[in-house]
Input
Amino acid sequence: MALRTILEDRDPALHKVCRPVTRFDQRLWDLLDDLKETLADANGAGLAAPQVGILRRAVIVVDDQDNMLELVNPEIIDQAGEQEGFEGCLSVPGRWGVVKRPKTVRVRAQDRNGMLFEAEGADMVARCFCHEIEHLDGRLFTEHAPRLYTTEELDQLLEEQAEKEQK
Output
């Protein structure tokens, strides 16, 4: 396993559509292991292969039990409800935006051996499914956010919100 460099938003690789994974071999397994290690090191909630410069349809998403789900060739097959909240990205460091996403999402994907499975997530996991799958189509969350906030602005907004809730 190895740490990979996470590309930033101006890198052309992040704006390209990824090719499906067709070979479920050691090369894919190494990529998935590297994505997990890189994600853990960056303390993120999800990571897609194009974020490390590999234009293949593979992502890692952290679920509610802090397990790292491997999703190869994932697709959203159902979604319901709506949530709106702050979203960030390891490829867009220090910037956050308010994004609307489905409240629950069901995905179909393949595991590292090519076996089909389905997974469902709500709230943050649903947000991550959508966010990471969009990376595979060359899209970033910034396309959905009407405004981007710095980390300092986000901290101030969250502090003000907490103060209002205490009153």
The longest strand covers residues 68-80. The radius of gyration is 16 Å.
